[in-house]
Design a protein that fits this description.
single chain, alpha/beta, D-Maltodextrin-Binding Protein, domain 2, five-stranded mixed sheet, 9 helices, WH_DNA-bd_sf, transcription regulation
Length: about 300
């Protein structure tokens, strides 16, 4: 059986044209190199080298064999490197689900950095609700999910990536827009626009508990499933909205954002299938995400 070491020995001998120098080059004794070449010739079935007292020359068959040997060694090196790069998460495909709105904060920076560092990994982004992401993870349609909801599915693992406070989104002409900072009690009696509870139950319930602790329950006059739609309703004067702070990057005419004292903190988490945390590509994406978000928070 022809082995890669036989090919390496043959190429070294062909290039050095001397058994002693070739043996030194491949770190073997001269007799071992001579035996390796002899075994190679037996496997091929024809003489590959002409041995003289002065130097070694290739036979016509040896010259042709040298071309193939070099190509085979180059291909073997490429194959090894591909395996090593795969083990480092540098090649492959990654499908990432994300909830509506994350495109306005964090996600673009993460994806840009990841693509810069891992240009040979194809990243497929899919905008999905948290429930759709969990189903996609279980069905192996996506590899990582980015969502606001805590995950209780025992088949999934998760890790908090970053934490964001809620802020108040107000119509630009609203009297409260003239203040630099609000209290949640300032919104008592205001009409609210918000997500349907069945779409984001944890987020919805967290806001309701916060308001209830201040002595009122928000009156939701209009629901919408997308953040830009809700902000458009704010701009139209339909009501106020309590988005996560990074949504304030979405500059919309007629909308102003104000911090709110003692605002609850919402965690954005990365979710993946239990066991896939050992996947080099998943690990690489999580590492990049944490690095980018840590830089963004100034930590």
């Amino acid at each position: 059986m022809i082995e890669l070491r036989h090919l390496r020995h043959f190429v070294a001998l062909a290039e050095e044209e001397h058994f002693g120098r070739a043996a030194e080059r491949v770190f073997v004794v001269q007799q071992a190199l001579s035996n390796s070449i002899r075994n190679l010739e037996e496997e091929v079935g024809v003489p590959l080298v002409l041995r003289t007292t002065r130097r070694v020359q290739l036979t016509p068959a040896g010259q042709e064999f040298l071309i193939g040997a070099r190509e085979t060694l180059a291909l073997a090196a490429q194959t090894v490197e591909r395996a090593r790069r795969a083990a480092r998460g540098e090649v492959g495909r990654l499908t990432v689900g994300f909830v509506s709105g994350l495109a306005f904060g964090g996600l673009p920076e993460i994806v840009r950095r990841f693509r810069d560092l891992y240009p040979n990994v194809s990243v497929d982004l899919r905008e999905l609700t948290a429930q759709e992401q969990e189903a996609g993870l279980r069905g192996e349609q996506i590899d990582i999910g980015l969502m606001l909801l805590p995950v209780r599915d025992p088949s999934l693992d998760s890790r908090p990536l970053w934490r964001q406070p809620l802020v108040a989104a107000l119509p630009a002409e609203h009297p409260l827009a003239r203040r630099r900072r609000l209290k949640i009690s300032d919104l008592r009696g205001e009409p609210f626009v918000f997500f349907p509870r069945q779409l984001r139950a944890t987020y919805f319930d967290q806001v309701m508990r916060w308001c209830a602790a201040s002595g009122f329950m928000p009156h939701v006059v209009q629901e919408a499933i997308e953040v830009p739609t809700l902000l458009s309703l704010v701009a139209a004067g339909v009501g106020v909205f309590l988005p996560i702070e990074f949504f304030s990057r979405l500059s919309l005419p007629g909308v102003v954002y104000r911090p709110v004292e003692d605002a609850p903190i919402v965690e954005i988490v990365a979710v993946w299938r239990r066991g896939d945390g050992h996947s080099p590509t998943v690990r690489a994406f999580l590492s990049v995400a944490e690095e980018v978000l840590r830089e963004g928070s100034g930590q």
